[in-house]
Amino acid sequence: MATDPELLSLKVDYKWNPMLPWPFQIRRVKHETEDTFTIELQPLGALEEFAYQPGQFNMLYVYGVGEIPISISGDPANPRVLVHTTRAVGTVTKAMDKMKRGDILGIRGPYGTPWPIDQANGSDVVFVAGGIGLAPLRPALYEVVAHRELYGKVVLLYGTRTPLDVLFRQELENWRARFDLEIYVTVDRAMTGWRGNVGVVTNLIPRAPFDPRNTMAFVCGPEIMMRFTAMELHKRGVDNEHIFVSMERNMKCAIGLCGHCQFGSVFVCKDGPVFRYSEIKEMLVKWEI
Amino acid sequence: MEDLKNILAEHPFFSGLNEEYFALIVGCASNMRIDAGKIIHREGEEANHFYLIRSGKVTLQMMTPNKGPLIIETLTEGDILGWSWLVPPYTWHFDAKALDLTRMIALDGKCLRTKCENDHHLGYELLKRFADIMMKRLESTRLQLMDIYGDRP
Fold this sequence. Notes:
The structure holds two protein chains of two kinds. Chain A is α/β, with parallel strands linked by helices. Chain A folds into two domains: 107 residues, Elongation Factor Tu (Ef-tu), domain 3 (Beta Barrel); 169 residues, 3-Layer(aba) Sandwich (Rossmann fold). Chain A is 19% helix and 29% strand. A seven-stranded mixed sheet of chain A has the order 11-9-8-7-12-13-16, with helices on both faces. Chain A has a six-stranded antiparallel sheet with strand order 4-3-6-1-2-5. Chain B is an alpha+beta fold. Helix content of chain B is 36%, strand content 30%. Chain B has one domain: Jelly Rolls, CATH 2.60.120. Chain B has a four-stranded antiparallel sheet.
């Protein structure tokens, strides 16, 4: 994990090889909550920018420890800085959590299907995020906010465990202060002192201010939360064709070769992670998949 | 009274109720205003009302030893508060507190449950509506219990 001078002076040309990690240097590590952190990275060597689309993910390689898929959580309009937000729960993310400014990580990517934001032009846009699921949605929010005039109402419904687990709190407050975004936050439990909502995120859907007949919904969170959210959105009148979810499976190669992330007839790494809900709805309730 | 009638008529909870029953329910309704921070009812107290929240926010909470009150759920505009008036022993299971200035319509459950005993069709109509609320709250509670945002949901 130490800063390697050879890597820092890397002068090779960047040639796309989907299996070859590219060295990135950590610019900043920010602890968002007790177990969640954001790392900002910049490419080394010939690669100056890293273009990606909202919803895509990278394979992050902690040298000598292992490689894992993590969604990009930064602003796609700023391709010079690559941002990832994750929880320190496994061997690799715990090692990553200990890294500091100047350390080097390997990156492969970007991979996967993006949030189809262009399809939401002229519609209301509803983002529903659960827990760390706000991170993969944030690039889409940045994009929508940057082109706010293209959309109708823009609503974010965000549910998490407790008030201490609220991610990107400052940013949520800034967005809430705008007159053209509707931001609602709820937590599963709280002690007195919390003046926000308590209850599951699906409880926010029936009264959220959007026109269900003209809405595109982007949902990201634990699979159970996404299933119940999609059902509640549909109950409100949103067409299943207009609901998109981001799936998570055991992604290894990230290019649809190894089969670790096979989900029925699709590979989550290549055909996803963002899927139209109507296309995978039946598979979500099959134990055998 | 006309104002109350209109508000109740617009609420989905009462939709489809016949005029006779609706008039009876309007007769059991009264306006209520609770200042922020005030307790609406406490756990263990007699439950003789249910409430339709018109504006504001109410927390359902329970006292936990050494930690203070734990908020279980918040209810806001349009929500129905309370079903303990319907089920023996007719006592509240949680504290309810107004988090903000809250305006509600209080409905006399004690009076209604006597009427329900005498007229089972009315009882069924009300129970059907409360069963829907109970189902939604049970579903939410199950999701909360699963701790889906934890390490191992």
